[in-house]
Sequence to fold (281 residues):
Amino acid sequence: MDKIMAKTETARREMGFYALVTFFAIAFGLAWGILALLIFFPGQTEPIFGPMGYTNPLFILAVYSPAIAGIFLVWRHYGTDGLRSYLRRLTLWRMPAGWWAFLVVGIPAAFYLGAAIKGTITDPFPFSPWRAALPALAAALFIGPVEELGWRGVALPLLQRRFVPLWSSLILGLIWGLWHLPAFFLSGSPQSAWSFGPYFIGVLSITVILTSIFNAARGSLLIAALYHFQMNNPVWPDAQPWDTLVFAALALAVVLLNRRKMLNLDEAVTEVLINLPDGPP
Fold:
């Protein structure tokens, strides 16, 4: 009887593919609900929470909604022990040297190439003195990358249980891009000054690239967060929309050069939890 009850409890707690419905419902419901308040009732929200921006707690809460959804689902299915296992994915740092080179050097090179094409590569550094960049870098590190606790923490592994990495990337990129849509109507948000079409293509492209990096790094949340930070890094020059075209070309190259891994599930990360031995990863 005890064995039967244990098996039943395990089956009940296991996070299956259809947990994605709950994940997306929370991520969209929370983010779009908050952003609707900021869009339609700025006169009521601004006096309480401050102007729109990275210091507005409502905006931060909206950005954190995928992480909130992911953490809630892990806790609901696996409890506090599961949360510890899930968060240990933040300690994974090993991946092929070529991907590390792309993360550290390749991403800024792509932005500078786009700026060179646009003619903005010689524009003055946007922060003066240079120390003024530190708050912007801190915001870029601790706001956007937290999303990855949801997108790559939960959504991508579950998608890769059903779809090969390429299709998982395109599905997640489509959803991720649409999740950002209300920000384009929100005065004061970065997206309010952009065009949605090129942005959407860019999101699809960087999602495809990140999926390859994510699988090569064994599902590392640390690597996913660093990648997200590099994409939002405020010190890179203005390169829109040419940076989108550069990343689209890079995504195509990744698919062609890495097509065996992108078109089968042999090395796809499908687990939300990870069990590591004690000590350094």
